[in-house]
Amino acid sequence: MAAVDSVLVIGGGVAGAATAILLADAGVSVDLVEMKPDVTALGSGITLQGNALRVLRELAVLDECLVQGYAADQLVIRAPDPAATVVATLTEHRSGGPDLPASMGMYRPDLARVLMGRAERAGVKTRFSTTVQDLEQDPSGVDVRFTDGSTGRYDLVVGADGLRSWTRRLLDVPLETRSVGMGIWRVFAPRPAEVVSSEAVYGGRCYIAGYTPTSESSLYAFLVEDAQDRTTITDEEKVAVVRDLAGSYGGPWREILEAITDPAAINYTWFEEHLLDAPWHRGRVVLVGDAAHTCPPTLAQGAAQALEDAAVLVELLLSADVLDDDLLSAFTARRLPRVREVVEASVQLARWQLAHEQGDVPALMGRIAQLTSTRA
Ligand SMILES: Cc1cc2nc3c(=O)[nH]c(=O)nc-3n(C[C@H](O)[C@H](O)[C@H](O)COP(=O)(O)OP(=O)(O)OC[C@H]3O[C@@H](n4cnc5c(N)ncnc54)[C@H](O)[C@@H]3O)c2cc1C
C-alpha cells in the first residue's frame, strides 16, 4: 500500500525525474509535465557528489551514468601562477559509501536523457511543452488544468519546477531568491588528456577557475567572477570575455582556451540562494529540489540535495497508507535541517571568497562530508 495512487510531477529536472521514477516503480500512476519542448537541459556539465550517486543507484541509472560520465576521487589545486603549479592533490571523501566514487562529472543533457529515458521505461506519462495553468485542491485531491487544455485529478502534486517555481507561486508561497554576489561562466570543451579529475585555481582574475571532466572526451570549465549584468552581452563579446579570463591562467587552461570559440557552448549565470522554511507543502501540493532550496555550487550539492528530496519523499509516501498533513510535515522535518546546513555552508564558502578571507574551509568541508555521508 502507498499513501497515493496518482501523482502529478511538475518539472522534469533531476528532482522531478527521480520522484517520478521511484513512484512509478512502486506502481503509482505518475504524470509529469515539463515546460521545455524536450529533455535537453542546459548544455553544460554537472558534478554529482557521492550522495547524489547513491540516489542514482537507487534509481537504477548509476551504471549508465558512469559509462557516460567521468568518475574521479581526486581534486587538484593549482596556483594562479603562469605555470599553474600544482599545490595539492586532494583525495575527496566518498560520501556515497566506499563502493562509489567520490564524484562524477557529466554532461547535463546526457544526465537528463538517462533520467527521462528511465522514467519512460518505468511507465511515467510525460508531456513536454506543457505546464499547469492552475490547480484547486479539496481534502481528497487536487484538480489541475493544463496549458494544453486538458485536466486531471491527483492525490498529490509535486512541484519540482526549479528555483523560479511556478508551483510555488500558484500556492502563494513567498520566497526571496537572493544573489550571492558571484557570476559564473561555464564552457563545454574537449578534455585535455592530462586532466583526469576536477582541478581548481583559487585566485588570479577570478575567484575560482576550474574544470571537471564530463566524459573521456569532454569537460566543463568554469570561471567565477563578481556578479555582473551580462544580459545584453553579444555572442562575440561573450567569447572575448571568457577567452580573456581563461587566458590569464596557465596549465591545462591553455589547451581549453583553444576550444573557446563557440558562443553556444558558453553560459553565464549568477550564484543565487534561497531556503524555504517549514512546511514545504500546502495541502496536497509539495515542493522539492530547487523549488524549495537553492545554493551556490561551491560544494556542488544542489542536484544531490534535489535527488535526496525525491528519495525521502517517495520513501515516506510508500511507507504510509494515507496522505495527510503529518506525512508531508515529516518530509520537511526530515529534509530541512540537512538542506539548511548545506545551503548555509555553500553560501559561507562564497562569502569567504568574496571577502578574500581564509575561513576554516577544511572544518566546513569535513562537516559537510560527514553530513552527506549519512543517509538522507
Ligand atoms: C552555475 C551552477 C552550477 C551548478 N553546479 C552544480 C553541480 O556541479 N552539482 C550539483 O549537484 N548541483 C549544481 N547546481 C545546482 C543544480 O543545477 C540544481 O540544484 C538542480 O538542477 C536542481 O534540480 P531541480 O530538478 O530541482 O530543478 P531544475 O534542474 O531547475 O529542473 C526544473 C525543471 O522544471 C522545468 N520547469 C520549470 N518551470 C516549469 C513549469 N512551470 N512547468 C513545467 N516544468 C517547468 C524546467 O524546465 C526544468 O526542466 C548548479 C547550479 C548552478 C546555477
CATH superfamily of the largest domain: FAD/NAD(P)-binding domain
Strand order of the largest sheet: 6-5-14-15-16-13-17-20
Q: If classified by CATH, what would the architecture of the largest domain be?
A: 3-Layer(bba) Sandwich
The count of strands amounts to 20
Enumerate the spans where pLDDT stays under 50 for 5 or more consecutive residues: none
Amino- and carboxy-terminal Cα gap: 23 Å
Total of domains: 2
> Mean of the pLDDT scores?
97
Content-based structural category: alpha+beta
Quickly describe the structure:
With 376 residues, this protein is an alpha+beta fold. Helices cover 34% and strands 29% of the residues. The longest helix has 30 residues.
